[in-house]
Amino acid sequence: MFEDLEFATSLGSDNHSGVHPKILQAVVAANRGHAHAYGLDEVSKLAALEFKRLFGDTVEAQYVFTGTAANVLSLSGLVKSFEAVIASEAAHLQQDECGAPEKFVGCKVMTVPSRDGRIRPEQLHTRLQRQGDQHFSQPRMVSLTQPTELGVCYTLPELRAWREWTTRKNLMLHIDGARLVNAAAFLNCSLRALTADIGVDVVSFGGTKNGLLGAEAVLLFSPLAKAHFKFYRKQAMQLSSKTRFLAAQFYAYLHQDLWLEIARHVTKTAQDLAARLAEIPEIQVQHAVESNALFVRLPKAWIGPLRERFFFYVWDVEQNLCRWMISFDWQPETNTRLVDAIREVRECFREK
Amino acid sequence: MFEDLEFATSLGSDNHSGVHPKILQAVVAANRGHAHAYGLDEVSKLAALEFKRLFGDTVEAQYVFTGTAANVLSLSGLVKSFEAVIASEAAHLQQDECGAPEKFVGCKVMTVPSRDGRIRPEQLHTRLQRQGDQHFSQPRMVSLTQPTELGVCYTLPELRAWREWTTRKNLMLHIDGARLVNAAAFLNCSLRALTADIGVDVVSFGGTKNGLLGAEAVLLFSPLAKAHFKFYRKQAMQLSSKTRFLAAQFYAYLHQDLWLEIARHVTKTAQDLAARLAEIPEIQVQHAVESNALFVRLPKAWIGPLRERFFFYVWDVEQNLCRWMISFDWQPETNTRLVDAIREVRECFREK
Amino acid sequence: MFEDLEFATSLGSDNHSGVHPKILQAVVAANRGHAHAYGLDEVSKLAALEFKRLFGDTVEAQYVFTGTAANVLSLSGLVKSFEAVIASEAAHLQQDECGAPEKFVGCKVMTVPSRDGRIRPEQLHTRLQRQGDQHFSQPRMVSLTQPTELGVCYTLPELRAWREWTTRKNLMLHIDGARLVNAAAFLNCSLRALTADIGVDVVSFGGTKNGLLGAEAVLLFSPLAKAHFKFYRKQAMQLSSKTRFLAAQFYAYLHQDLWLEIARHVTKTAQDLAARLAEIPEIQVQHAVESNALFVRLPKAWIGPLRERFFFYVWDVEQNLCRWMISFDWQPETNTRLVDAIREVRECFREK
Amino acid sequence: MFEDLEFATSLGSDNHSGVHPKILQAVVAANRGHAHAYGLDEVSKLAALEFKRLFGDTVEAQYVFTGTAANVLSLSGLVKSFEAVIASEAAHLQQDECGAPEKFVGCKVMTVPSRDGRIRPEQLHTRLQRQGDQHFSQPRMVSLTQPTELGVCYTLPELRAWREWTTRKNLMLHIDGARLVNAAAFLNCSLRALTADIGVDVVSFGGTKNGLLGAEAVLLFSPLAKAHFKFYRKQAMQLSSKTRFLAAQFYAYLHQDLWLEIARHVTKTAQDLAARLAEIPEIQVQHAVESNALFVRLPKAWIGPLRERFFFYVWDVEQNLCRWMISFDWQPETNTRLVDAIREVRECFREK
Fold it and tell me: For residue A143, what are the β-bridge partners?
């Protein structure tokens, strides 16, 4: 089946890749007999243990279908409609959810300028001036993307400073961790160190972009986040029935630390690629490469021909800035093929 | 993996079963290389053709993750927040969505009493009296479940009468078809005859309960239903990224009419079971068996011991009415095992 | 100004009347100099004392513009989007808010059948069966209309039974008291006896229908109801700026018990009218007259000519059942004029 | 009544003042007999004619209770939940509605930086880059505040340029005209020239801040804006019952051009005050004075003592920038009293 279809190699997004073979095997293995729906099955119990092993005993992991849903449901029990979540202006929450937080939570997303997706507590000064003023959406949560949409990581001290500051200001702390695993690989720390040990309230923990078929988890740490989650999830149309197949994906991903193997691989592959691009003077890599993303400024003329061979998105048209995302199945040889293609395009234009 | 887990045989729901082998094969087959996300892949194109083959050229099929989402997104472009959808009081839309239509669409669900889940246009008389009255949520759509939550089917003439009446009253017509395929099997008609040929505006077309891993489709027929669907879906957190894996499931399900094979199988198996239950005088099967559901009234004492062997839900505690759902993998031998178990329980209590 | 306009005498609604002269005087008297907006003015402080005098020290009275808003904001801090409020199927909350609770709170309104608008705890049995079931909107509040939309009153023992039952079931208790004053007049008890002493959580306390220019109050009793009210009100677009003019209306209405004078007057006038209608054999008054409403079954032919003289609404077309509402400015002579008109119409048809 | 209460003179807001005597007279005059509710009364008809006289025949004026409601209901029929409204970052819509647009419409408010509240089409370039991208809230409307929250006016050519540009980009155009009358006074043009003649789709037309007791109007020009307005208004809890009293206010305000008299008076009084402040070297008036607002930078030490005599808000604490709003009842003598008070405070600090 599908033998005739062509499947390319893409830099477009880490969701252009398919499913990691071990994860797909787990889905197949879970396909036996009947099981209770809605998370009451045996596979879900095994997966829950894996989450506790990696994030500590206080975590409650709940599945949803998309990253947008993970972000929105991270807010739903914690942010009331008259409150606001504060995020970087580059945040997925602000730029790429088509207003789902506003629609489902009814709240405001307040943004803070940022060059590389990171924000600092000092930037929020004016946001907190109108506390108690009924005319103004009341800030209630800070959402940090780790690594950011621009591929850089908050350090552990930075995260700790955020927690300390948000606690002092009576704000909740959320981490949008669609690629949180890559931050753990880059910072060489455990997932727990990045979350439970910091004291975050709730985390969007990505799966699909890291090799799963299609599953995300919301990691609930604070009691308030846990209190009504299952009802909000159902009302958000995110309650899966054959949950064992979502659980199986996460089980295979977490068990035996496949997540770390993949995260190290993509981060290292992205850094290797950046090193090789450094040898091409016409190309500048913007931002530090601390995850699986490269933001690459190319000569304008190269973009078209290169996209025909390896699809990618132009992030900023005016700056000829392109985003290249490395998927779990990207190999050293793929890097070589890509660099070769760049050199060919370069030659082509040099000749003219 | 998961070799040690126990998987029972369940009558609890048709989502207690796993994935049909041919459908899982398609998922595995689609796992090659990279593909565009969000439905722009080649598998999605193939699946789209299958939908057009079965539902006619006017159909636009869009995937979502759950039946709740299919129902809510069937409303979102067609029903405004000050309007209402009318449904049977037994409708999933009213009883089992945890208020998702109210939350996401902002509209009212108006209900009409029903014994077997079917409703008739005559029942809506008073609902339409206040047309134009700004104090009253304005009826805009009728939603019929086919087959109903009680397992019976609207006939084709009944559906045609509904379309004629709703058109006359300027109402849209939605079909909640979580198990629409079973109605096609029972009525021995095409899927197109049940939908496009009737002139329905939008259909929730079930997958997960019929053997898929996890996917539902919204079938958009009228231009208004199509107009903004993709934006509402994204905002409803229902846009899958690795869409090829949802499309692969539907492709395998529709291609070579696997859907019909499964639908005939479960409907016939349910009817066979009903016939064998007729021989047990203590048992009454309520409602005609026109799908894969049996509503079975049991002696109260039998319920406990029987549920230990084959899990099922008690639909109405006071009436000892139980719901038995037949999944795609239920075999004639499973019927035999079940009837044997009933006879054993019966003996056990007779002896006392 | 407006000297040439014709203003009729209407039975259509108690909001067809204007403003009680003493209340309008208070508005005029409050029009001096400048005052802080949003309830921080001196008139608001005086009115707050009146509310405490009549409802006890635990009350916090907050103004809104409409009865719909009072009902919706009674829910907003107490009922989450995945929860439900239970009301009579005749309730204004269900029939006459154009879906405002669904839109603004996102919750479900669950209805219970009723002949005269009153409901009994026994009717809620099946509504509470699915507690904890994530697929089902969770009942959280019971809303009683006092007097009901059909003009009858819950007795104090009935109210106490409701409070006891809702407390046992962990439900909040709301009273829609658009005409609560009339219940106090009919039951000959204080406003406090009907609310704080019962232990209700929140009350919609009507003003406009009882002689105010345009103002309603939400009476907050339980701490949770008070907690975030001002933010929900602002977000619900119900925060008045020149609040002194709303406060002045309520001050004049409560001070020196003008409310009671009006309530006794309209209730007695309605009962007097019912007594006089009893002498006309073709007319039946349905429901006990325990407020300012009469539900009157008339010969079909009389309706047209009578409506031309005194406007009213036909409540149920098939039963020729009409609703007559008595406003604060309806006099004994108006009753006489109305009865004379009825007799004239009667003669007119008798002759034919 | 209220004889003992103290009412100060305030610069805090133009809603700290009371009701213009002629407008209050109209309210009193409308208090005769009974009238149909919900806008079907005779006073409403007279007021509707006044709106048509001033804004042209295409206008449909509908009343709401607050400026927040006027803004939100200006959006509700025109902006879908997945769409966005673009406004200045200083806009009331963004800063002072406590998230009401997000809650009620479900849409996103996108902001554009601005120094004096005015924005230019060129600033929207990047907002429109993602048209058709389902991940991004789709811009649908531009909202301009006229005069801006900083008290400056868009010129007629600027407005025409906005209309031309929005039409080309398929965007709707809204004007938040809480003080639109002042712009007409400053620009010396008709209200029609500022709205219908420009071709705006919908206008929030303020009343309360300009001398009304409490009423705002939404002016609907485009057919889509009119289509479902009454239902959205009711669901937004903004349908007044005794509408004649809102209509009477607007009738008195528009009839015989009282609006223009007031608008000229407050704008001129503000400009006169600015001229007198220019003589005090320690004071800088920021922004041109083109409405009834002055943004005044004061020596920090003066603020406290001055606020005790004339209440006002400090707009920007760090810059000692204060906002002074001139109400309809502010007289030349009040200016003199204020300037005298400033001089006294100045002397007081000079002596030290």
Answer: A87, A174
State which residue of chain A sits closest to B242, comparing Cα positions. Answer: A15
A155: which DSSP letter?
-
Q: Of how many residues is chain A composed?
A: 352
Phi, psi at D252, each rounded to 5°: -65, -30
Whether the complex's predicted ipTM surpasses the cut of 0.95: yes
Backbone angles phi, psi at D99, to 5 degrees: 75, 15
Closest CB to C135: pick one of A80, A232, A234. Answer: A234
Indicate yes or no: CB of B16 within 8 angstroms of CB of A1. Answer: no
- A43-to-A252, A258, C46, C288 alpha-carbon distances in Å: 11, 17, 64, 62
Q: Is-contact D281 D342, C-beta < 8 A?
A: no
User: How far is residue D164's CA from residue C51's CA, in Å, rounded to a whole number?
Assistant: 54
Distance from chain centroid for Cα D214: 13
Percentage, residues of chain D above pLDDT 90: 95
Angle D53-D55-D61 (CA atoms, 0-180°, nearest 5)? 95
Q: Which of C96, C137, C317 sits opposite B99 (nearest CB)?
A: C137
> Residue A288: which of A270, A263, A306 has the closest Cα?
A270
Could you give the domains of chain C?
21-256 (3.40.640.10), 259-351 (3.90.1150.10)
- B293-297 long-range Cβ contacts below 8 angstroms, 24+ apart: B293/B147, B293/B150, B293/B151, B293/B323, B293/B324, B293/B325, B293/B326, B294/B151, B294/B270, B294/B323, B294/B324, B294/B326, B295/B150, B295/B151, B295/B321, B295/B322, B295/B323, B295/B324, B296/B321, B296/B322, B296/B323, B296/B324, B297/B321, B297/B322
Q: Which residue of D has its CA nearest to A125?
A: D318
Element of type H or E holding B216: strand B216-220
pLDDT tens profile B17-31: 999 999 999 999 999
> How far does B229 lie from chain D, in Å, by closest CA?
10
Q: Do D108 and A99 touch (CB under 8 A)?
A: yes
Mean of all residue pLDDT scores within chain D: 96
**Pairing between β-strand C293-297 and β-strand C284-286 as defined by DSSP bridges:** antiparallel
Q: Which amino acid is at A32?
A: R
Per DSSP (E only), the strands in chain D are: 60-64, 83-88, 108-112, 138-145, 172-177, 202-205, 216-220, 284-286, 293-297, 313-316, 321-325
**Average confidence (pLDDT) per 10 residues, chain C, 352 residues:** 86 97 98 95 97 98 98 97 98 98 98 97 89 96 98 98 98 98 98 98 98 98 98 98 98 98 98 97 97 98 96 94 98 96 94 67
Tell me the C-alpha distance between D117 and C305, whole Å. 59
Neighbours of chain B (3+ CB pairs under 8 A): A, C, D
The token duo for A168 is 């002092």
Minimal CA separation from B122 to chain A, in Å: 32
The C-alpha of A55 sits at a distance from chain D's nearest C-alpha, in angstroms, of 31
**Min Cα separation D322/chain B (Å):** 41
Disruptive mutation site among A63, A81, A83 for chain C (greatest number of C CBs within 10 Å):
A81
- Name the burial class of residue C256, with classes exposed (0-12), middle (13-18) and buried (19+) by CB atoms within 10 angstroms of its CB: exposed
Q: Which residues of C touch D237 (CB under 8 A)?
A: 64-66, 68-69, 72, 100, 104, 236-238
Tokens coding A76: 């739903």
| Gap between the Cα atoms of A349 and A265, Å rounded | 33
Separation of alpha carbons C96 and C116, rounded Å: 17
Contact A134 C230 (CB under 8 A): yes
Q: B144, B162 in Cβ contact below 8 A?
A: yes
Nearest CA in chain D to B104: D106
Q: Least CB-CB distance to B99: which of C82, C129, C317? A: C82
Ramachandran angles phi, psi of A141, nearest 5°: -150, 145
- Stretches where chain A sits below pLDDT 50 are none
* Residue D24 CB partners (closer than 8 Å, separation 6+): C27, C28, C31, D213
